[in-house]
Amino acid sequence: MWYVYIIYSKSLNRHYIGYTEDLEWRLERHNSAWGRYTCKGIPWELVYYEKFAAKTEAIKREREIKKKKSKKYIEKLIHAGGRPEPKSN
């Protein structure tokens, strides 16, 4: 399963869009200063995701969202659904 995800940084008041095969692992990487862009916005919170069967579908959707270049569009997606399920410990 592949995911397109949106994470949010309160400190930067910015969203980051990406794709991955493992949401939990990817969020941990973002919050451990792994990426050049996301290291500045720690902590990041997962606020939205969509599931895809194929990597190519996830990449296509990620590009589609990024092409919009619209904070309003991203916020509309987040409020419409796709919010993460609570973790079970």
Descriptive notes:
With 89 residues, the protein is an alpha+beta fold. It has a single domain, classed as GIY-YIG endonuclease. 36% of the residues lie in helices and 27% in strands. The protein has three helices and three strands, in the order E-E-H-E-H-H. A three-stranded antiparallel beta sheet has the order 2-1-3, sandwiched between helices. Strand 1 and strand 2 form a beta hairpin. The longest helix has 14 residues. The protein starts with a strand and ends in a 9-residue tail after the last helix.
Task: Give the topology, please.
Blueprint (H helix, E strand, L loop, with lengths): L1 E8 L4 E7 L2 H8 L13 E9 L2 H14 L2 H10 L9
Antiparallel strand pairs: 1-2, 1-3
Give keywords.
three-stranded antiparallel beta sheet; alpha+beta; 89 residues; GIY-YIG endonuclease
Kindly summarize this structure in a few lines.
With 89 residues, this protein is an alpha+beta fold.
Q: What is the CA–CA distance across the termini?
A: 22 Å
User: What's the CATH C level?
Assistant: Alpha Beta
Helical stretch tally:
3
Largest sheet: 3 strands, antiparallel
How many distinct folded domains? 1
SSE string: EEHEHH
Overall SS class = alpha+beta
Strand % is 25-35%
Overall number of strands: 3
